[in-house]
Every structure is written in C-alpha cells, then in structure tokens.
Amino acid sequence: MKIKIPFDRKRIRLPRIKKQARIPLVIGAIIILFALGTYFHLLPSIGSLAHLFEPKVTTDPLQSLGDAATPLSADLAKPLIADFLASPGYQSDPLSVQFFDMSRGTPGTWHWDFGDNVTSDLQNPVHEYAGPDIYNATLTVSRGDGTQKTITAYDVLDTRQAAESQMLVDTIRT
C-alpha cells in the first residue's frame, strides 16, 4: 500500500538569489571546486605539466645506478652578496666618509660610485665630498666567475641627522 503525500507548491519555497549576489557566488563556487580538485589531485598543479614540454634528447650513454652515489667533484660557489657601511665624520670633517665593504661570497673586485661623478676600485675607500648635499653611493662587487652584485646607499652624508643635531630646544617655557 502506497501513501501519497500531496505536493503543494505554495508550501515549499526555495530561496531566491538576487542578481547582485549571483556573480560572487559563481566565482566562489569555481574557486572552491578548483581548490578541491587540486587538493585531491584531480586537477594538475601549476608546474606539473612543465616537465612534459621539456626536451629529453641526449647523446650521452646511460649511466648505471652504481655511479649515482659518487659525490660532486666541484664545490658549489657561495652566493655573492654586496653590502657596505658608510660612516660620515660628524665632528672632525663632516664631508669625509669612510666606506667599509661588508660583502660576502669572496668578491674579487670592488667598484665604488660615490654619487658625485667620482669612482674608486679600493675595497675600503675614504671619500671627501665637495659640499653638503644628498649623495647616493653605489658598490658593485664581482668575482672571477663573472658574478656581479650591486647595492646603493641613499644619502650617505646623512643630512637628515645633521639637521636634527642643530635643532634648538626651548627649555624655559612650560
């Protein structure tokens, strides 16, 4: 014996989605589906197809697995990092700046551009500027394998700090 339940369209109402909310809901659903597909490995990840397009042609003979345990014959070079300190002389000569090379990775040559059309190839030079101004000093280090790195320090005379040291303070008034 089957029991029939009358279906009344007036009693069951599905919520209506306003037109302004449809586009964000569709975009959100696409993002969720893409995330789930990637999480469960149903969709390929961004870099997984890249190996399919690389040519694998070689003329070298195949190596046995016994050679795989041999170490590399040459050590990897340390990364070259350019860095320096600029120390302006405040009391004795405020226009004289001592530059200290702080580079890492065994650089072989140094090229300084002091920002006033004067250059130097010393490792730790001292430079005398003509007058107070904003000078941007650049250091380029390189080594024998052709690697070069460059760094720039802005306002090496630190005119901002010199202006602050000349500020008068009124301590009489409250």
Quick summary:
The protein is of the alpha+beta class. 16% of the residues lie in helices and 19% in strands. The protein has a domain at 84-164: Sandwich (Immunoglobulin-like), CATH 2.60.40.10.
Largest sheet at a glance?
4 strands, antiparallel
Query: How large is the share of residues in beta strands?
Result: 15-25%
Q: What is the CATH superfamily classification of the domain at 84-164?
A: Immunoglobulins
User: Which spans of ≥5 residues are poorly predicted at pLDDT below 50?
Assistant: none
Q: What is the average of the pLDDT values?
A: 76
Query: What CATH first level of the domain at 84-164 would be assigned?
Result: Mainly Beta
- Oligomer, anyone? single chain
What share of the residues lie within helices?
10-25%
Number of DSSP strand runs: 7
Question: Per the principal axes of the C-alpha atoms, what is the gross shape?
Answer: elongated
Strand order, largest beta sheet: 4-3-6-7
Give a verbal description of the structure.
The chain has 174 residues and is α+β, with helices and mostly antiparallel strands. The protein has a domain at 84-164: Sandwich (Immunoglobulin-like), CATH 2.60.40.10. The chain has two helices and seven strands. The protein has helices at residues 19-39, 159-165, and strands at residues 84-88, 96-101, 109-113, 119-120, 126-128, 137-142, 148-153. It is elongated.
